[in-house]
Amino acid sequence: MKTNNNTEFIQLDLHIHSCLSACGSLEQSPSNLLPILCEKGISIAAITDHNSTLNYDAFFINSLKFNLCIFPAVEIQTEEEIHVIVVFPDKSKASNWQNWIDSIIPFVPLDAKFFGDEPVIDQDENIVMMCENLLTVSLPVSLTVLEIKAEKDNLIYFPAHINADTYSVISQLGFIPPDHLFKIAEITRKEDLLYFENNLNSNEKITFIANSDSHYNEQIGKRFTRIYDKQLIENYIQYLFFIEEKKITKDNLDLYINTIEDLKVNIYNRLKYCLENLDDRRIVPFFVNL
Prior knowledge:
Number of strands: 11
CATH superfamily: Metal-dependent hydrolases
CATH class: Alpha Beta
Shape: globular
CATH architecture: Alpha-Beta Barrel
Order of helices and strands: EHEHEEHHEEHEHEHEEHHE
Helix content: 25-40%
Number of domains: 1
Largest sheet: 7 strands, mixed
CATH topology: TIM Barrel
């Protein structure tokens, strides 16, 4: 069994767009992205399209042959136009959130010539649906309401690219709210990481992570996070061992899906613990050639 990392650390990227995101490339497909993640040494990843989880299945099924643990996720735009990543432990929880999103998202017809297409694909990368509504819109929920909902469901969530000039906590509010609930935040530049680490209140604990926010294949591996945690690595290896032992493919996946989901939940729960509790010596954001 071959893993994508060594036995001292594990690398993750929790902000990757698929071809479903109109702002991204149509080349953001499983056959293109998954091999690159392996090549870059990423073991845990999340597919985070705008206000949608619909392309998760295509990536998860194909990830079985790449030694990758892929989680469903979504990039939600709040009413303040703040982007927040929410990562789910399993498809059931993702589906519940998708139903909630679908029930409140404003309908704005998609102008594909201006914004780009929003294709939903199956495991063979056939287009099964073209979204007719623009997904990159604000939901009628505040950052606080979103935080409360994610906390209630015990989810991994974090404001995206908090140092960005648009769609970030800082750009939209001008500051990090003192009553915020999030314990994790995504940052995109090393110099900004140092600034935030040096200027947080002494009693405030935020874990800063780096993710690619990949919209194009070549962005994978430019930013990622490395975690040094023995238990997380063991949980990941148990997941890979089971897939290899049972020779799981898309053809026999249904026979083992419950066990696979349980093993992924173990990874998720430990990952959440690490992101919320470990110090900056054991959670290290990386910025490559930026």
